[in-house]
Amino acid sequence: YNHNADIVGAEALLRWQHPIYGMVSPSIYIPIAEESDLILNIGQWVLEQACRDIHQLKQEELLDNVGNIAVNISAKQLIQHDFQELIINTIEKNDIDPKYLTLELTESFLVENIDRSIKLLHNLKAKNIGCAIDDFGTGYSSLTYLQRIPANTLKIDRSFVTNIDKSKESIAIASMIISLGKMLNMKVLAEGVETSAELE
Q1: pTM score of the predicted model
Q2: Strand residues in 48-170 grouped as ranges (E)
């Protein structure tokens, strides 16, 4: 949401409704999938489903009300030699405008693979595909690296947002990230705002 409470975007989040265990959190099964190549299949399915949803929203003339759709990308997906081709093919197959898709990548992975990340993101940006830096503030970010990464959005990690009204430290960190985003001409999103006090 923005300050007028308008919806400006959405994020594709994966949930597993298990027949025995009920709703299983991604924090349980995604790390296991990351250890194997299962994350590649899961990640591609999420990407394709998000693009199908974007197409459907466009058909129903609802997309302009929703804005863009963000999809989390895993480290293993990003280092695939044909990752860029997979993204572009999925967009073309579903006949969507790439401006409606944003890829979310964690800060720590971008910095660990800085040269590869910068090249890839520049290529995707040229295709009008957005990039958001997820979990910002939790990794070992370098302002020098951040200047070079062609992202258009910073996401303040939820750990700094929860009960921010009761934490001077969280307020300071969030304020710093907001100022940084403004200076670098990036949008800034806060994750997990749930109370009016946190919103304020």
Answers
A1: 0.87
A2: 68-72, 101-106, 130-136, 153-156
Q: Which helix (H) or strand (E) is 16 found in, with range?
A: strand 16-18
Q: Give the torsion through C-alpha atoms of 92, 100, 43, 18, to 10 deg.
A: -120
CB-CB contact of 96 with 51 (8 Å): yes
pLDDT digits (tens, 9 = 90+) for 45-89: 999 999 999 999 988 888 777 778 999 998 888 888 899 999 999
- Whether the Cβ atoms of residue 33 and residue 75 lie closer than 8 Å to each other: no
> What is the mean pLDDT of the segment spanning 15-21?
92
Residues 30, 175: Cα–Cα separation, whole Å:
31
Tokens read off for 144: 């020098």
